[in-house]
Write a structure and sequence with these properties.
Order of helices and strands: EHEHEEEEHEHEHEHHHEEEEHHH
Structural class: alpha/beta
CATH class of the largest domain: Alpha Beta
CATH architecture of the largest domain: 3-Layer(aba) Sandwich
Number of helices: 11
Largest sheet: 7 strands, parallel
Strand order of the largest sheet: 3-4-2-1-7-8-9
Helix content: 40-55%
Shape: elongated
């Protein structure tokens, strides 16, 4: 019976240092293949393979589409591409973004769960927001092992904390203990795959990430239509309740959690406010110039009209600057997320999963 020989790791902000520490703790003869998604800008060249090659004993590289999977190797998703797993090989695709990212953690973990079931170990490390939560749940449902970095020591705790709130994780560990755990689990026999069948929902989501035409054309079966529009393409977002996780997906395949929708909308709102401020400042500048010209021409009545417009524009500009420099939008984000989810967030995060770091949950 095979061991846990497929290790899928997801990280975001603060992830380079975390991945270096894990790579350092993995032996060169590890009887498993490691697959990594780190959120990186699409236009930036990735130096992560070189960094991890120096940090540990395992060979590390960006795979190409169709690359065969070899044990004792770390494969890192290249910039602007999802990394998906099939039986024996990898797919590198420019599928729709998920949670505002490409590569994203969820597509990797879902495809690993579908292809390898109980042989998969899913690991969520430091990062902002909640990419990876849905993918880790898919691994759990297929009988795999779920691991999160202890949020108390994570540089950015949101990703591991979200996973703990929505998935009954098997292990919550500090970074120093994750590498030894992976070494141990890689040699342990996995459960029987037949006990954990692939659901239609999981198969469909993997097909969407891989840009399978039939899956995309079947978009109206994703869930029920919501009142929200896709931040990426403007289409209708379809609402889907995945266990305790509320998720959204549009017809073209873009997928979001409530947190990622709010983050995208916040950025769009900020861009709109800056554009409005520019317009109001230009209005004030023009009104000031016209008022001065009217005074020079002895048209005091006209100058007073422009001065009133100037005062109004300056008041609007002051209000816009206050909105842009305050933390008001950050304070309301979680309230909006609660409304989208239709439930309140727990006041003590991760309370249901609270155990001493290193304990099996």
């Amino acid at each position: 019976m095979p061991g846990h020989d497929i290790i899928a790791i997801g990280a975001s902000a603060g992830g380079v240092e975390a991945l270096m520490q894990i790579a350092h703790g993995l032996p060169g003869n590890l009887p498993a293949a490691v697959f990594v998604v780190l959120h990186i800008p699409a236009e930036a060249p990735s130096l992560l393979p070189d960094i991890l090659n120096r940090a540990g004993s395992l060979s590390t590289s960006h795979p190409e589409d169709g690359t065969r999977i070899e044990m004792g190797h770390i494969y890192i998703a290249p910039p602007d591409h999802h990394l998906l797993l099939e039986k024996g090989y990898m797919r590198i695709v420019r599928g729709p973004k998920e949670n505002r990212h490409r590569p994203a953690v969820d597509p990797l973990m879902r495809s690993a769960a579908m292809a390898y079931g109980p042989r998969v170990i899913g690991v969520i490390l430091t990062g902002a927001l909640d990419d990876g939560t849905s993918g880790l749940l898919a691994i759990k449902r297929r009988g795999g092992v779920t691991v999160v970095q202890d949020p108390k020591e994570a540089l950015y705790p949101s990703m591991p904390q979200s996973a703990m709130e929505h998935v009954q994780v098997d292990y919550c560990l500090p970074l120093a203990e994750i590498g030894p755990l992976l070494r141990h689990l890689a040699s342990e026999p996995a459960k029987d795959e037949d006990i954990y069948p692939v659901s239609q929902e999981l198969a469909k989501e993997v097909e969407i990430a891989a840009m399978e035409t039939n899956a995309l054309n079947d978009g109206d079966q994703i869930g029920k239509p919501s009142v929200f529009s896709c931040p990426e393409c403007g289409g209708v977002l379809w609402e889907h309740q995945d266990g305790a996780i509320l998720r959204f997906r549009c017809r073209t395949g873009h997928a979001f959690s409530p947190e990622s929708v709010l983050a995208e909308q916040s950025e769009a709102l900020e861009r709109a406010l800056w554009f409005a401020l520019k317009t109001v400042d230009e209005k004030a500048s023009l009104a000031r110039r016209m008022a001065a010209q009217a005074h020079e021409n002895g048209q005091d009545w006209l100058a007073r009209s422009f001065e009133r417009r100037l005062q109004e524009a300056e008041q609007h500009a002051s209000l816009l600057r206050e909105m842009l420099t305050s933390d008001m939008h950050y304070e309301t984000t979680h309230n909006l997320v609660q409304q989208m989810e239709g439930k309140a967030k727990p006041t003590n995060k991760g309370k249901a999963n609270e155990k001493n770091p290193g304990e099996k949950h």
